[in-house]
UniProtKB/TrEMBL annotation, chain A:
Cited PROSITE patterns: YJEF_N
MF-aspect GO terms: NAD(P)HX epimerase activity
Protein's UniProt name: ApoA-I-binding protein 2
Organism: Todus mexicanus
Coiled-coil residue windows: none
A Pfam short name: YjeF_N
Cited InterPro entries: YjeF_N_dom, YjeF_N_dom_sf, YJEFN_prot_NAXE-like
The organism's taxonomic lineage, starting at the top: Eukaryota, Metazoa, Chordata, Craniata, Vertebrata
Residues in YjeF N-terminal domain copies: 1-186
UniProt GO cellular component terms: mitochondrion
From TrEMBL, chain B:
Keyword Mitochondrion among UniProt keywords: yes
Enzyme Commission identifier(s): 5.1.99.6
Catalysed conversion reaction: (6R)-NADHX = (6S)-NADHX; (6R)-NADPHX = (6S)-NADPHX
Descriptive protein name: NAD(P)H-hydrate epimerase
Organism of this sequence: Todus mexicanus (Puerto Rican tody)
PROSITE patterns named in the record: YJEF_N
Hydrolase is among the record's keywords: no
Phylogenetic placement of the source organism: Eukaryota, Metazoa, Chordata, Craniata, Vertebrata
Domain of life: Eukaryota
Broad class of enzyme this protein falls into: isomerase
Keyword annotations from UniProtKB, A to Z: Isomerase, Metal-binding, Mitochondrion, NAD, NADP, Nucleotide-binding, Potassium, Secreted, Transit peptide
Length: 202, 227
């Protein structure tokens, strides 16, 4: 995810003076991956800010949080409902709210409010694995419309409904027999890249 | 050497990185540096075969991660791992390699000529920055053989057998060195063709605290070629 963001939004191309990115992290694994992404964005010289309202008690995810804090990545205490504030402050939003595992209703409430705000922002959204709030197979009606989708391991069914600008797959770590077993037929990754852009949907 | 150990400690205790996280990023850097300097098309052997020799500690773990990524990059690695720590981290890394069909050699090729015939590159993942004192067997004999190998050798972090600060004039002379986090003092004695920096995970505050003065990495690359 963190590699594809610079590919989709290279530093020199950003409209705002500072390379600010808002990373919105949900309560489960998708959010944890967002934390890792934020840390790497910081290493890549972006200025990420994290909104992580419902924190997991999983020790691994708590360590990810500490790593971000110790990298001086600010954590917002609330998400402005005034959408213009977000549009003005950041170049892009990373949506790491809900992923393919989002079955449980628990944890959905704070997410519902966040997603409602995200639906109205005008800056680009990069969604991690599944655009948050979409049904993992059927897709969405009236949900968020990300500009960039980064599918993890392999695209999910709902990715067929993705209409944004760029779709990346980050799955170069998959052992060959897993790829074969699930008939994933991934595209060739260029050189030593860990993400590959799939052909644009339009 | 003490500074390197202090930085490592701080990454784990203050920053709460796990060994797994940093080892994965380190191993990935090594494989990436190798892919840049020795692309599969450059091999004179019929397949891009690589021998990865893993030592008994974390440097060996870095080697296991490196082997796995080399496989994903299209190489044909084989691992020699004679002394395996009884810890879940290393057992997991070993399993990951085995399940990717990376062979683990039952014995070390005794002759340098044999290694040169079969492999286009050797990865030295025997000893790292914590190495001190005498070299225990079987690694003494292994290093002896490696010194007679003509295939290029890529060392992870510190050429094995070298004093971490002073180097070793009559020791291993690798063609490539991948310094992790920051170059160790011994790197000043490195005389091979390719010196890469890897391990792009150093928090800016830590870099400042230890005045590492690391040059900037290009774009989103996880390695930087220093020479």
């Amino acid at each position: 995810l963190s590699v594809s963001s610079p590919q989709a939004f290279p530093l020199p191309s950003l409209p705002r003076k500072q390379p600010t990115v808002l990373v919105v992290c949900g309560p489960a694994q998708n959010g944890a991956i967002g934390l890792v992404c934020a840390r790497h964005l910081r290493i890549f010289d972006y200025e990420p800010t994290i909104f992580y309202p419902k924190r997991s008690s999983d020790p691994l995810y708590r360590d990810f949080t500490t790593q971000c804090e110790k990298m001086d990545i600010p954590f917002l205490s609330y998400l402005p409902t005034e959408v213009q504030l977000i549009n003005d402050a950041y170049n892009a939003v990373v949506d790491a709210v809900l992923g393919a595992e989002a079955e449980a209703a628990e944890g959905r409430e704070p997410c519902a409010a966040i997603l409602a705000t995200l639906k109205h922002i005008r800056i680009p959204i990069v969604s991690l694995d599944v655009p948050s709030g979409w049904d993992v197979e059927a897709g969405s009606s009236g949900g968020i419309s990300p500009d960039v989708l980064v599918s993890l391991a392999a695209p999910k069914q709902c990715a067929r409904r993705f209409l944004g600008r760029q779709h990346f797959v980050a799955g170069r770590f998959l052992p060959y027999d897993v790829q074969k077993k699930f008939e994933l037929n991934p595209p060739e990754y260029p050189g030593t890249e860990c993400v590959v852009a799939l052909r644009a949907p339009r | 050497q003490e500074e390197a150990q202090a930085i490592d400690q701080e990454l784990f205790t203050e920053y709460k990185f796990s060994v797994d996280q940093l080892m994965e990023l380190a191993g990935l850097s090594c494989a990436t540096a190798i892919a840049k300097a020795y692309p599969p098309s450059s091999f004179t052997t019929s397949q891009p075969t690589v021998l990865v020799v893993c030592g008994p500690g974390n440097n060996g773990g870095d080697g296991l991660v490196c082997a796995r990524h080399l496989k994903l990059y299209g190489y044909e690695p084989a691992v020699y791992y004679p002394k395996r720590p009884n810890k879940p981290l290393f057992e997991g890394l070993t399993t990951q390699c085995q399940k990717m069909d990376i062979p683990f050699l039952p014995e070390f090729p005794g002759e340098a000529e044999l290694i040169d015939e079969v492999y286009g590159l050797v990865v030295d993942a025997i000893f790292g920055f914590s190495f001190k004192g005498a070299v225990r067997e079987p690694f003494g004999s292994i290093l002896g053989t490696l010194q007679r190998v003509t295939a290029p050798i890529a060392s992870i972090d510190v050429p094995s057998g070298w004093d971490v600060e002073k180097g070793k004039a009559d020791g291993l002379q690798p063609d490539m060195l991948v310094s992790l986090t920051a170059p160790k003092k011994a790197a000043a004695h490195f005389a091979g063709r390719y010196h890469f920096l890897g391990g792009r995970f150093v928090p800016p505050a830590l870099e400042k605290k230890y005045a590492l003065n690391l040059p900037p990495y290009p774009g989103t690359d996880c390695v930087l070629q220093l020479s």
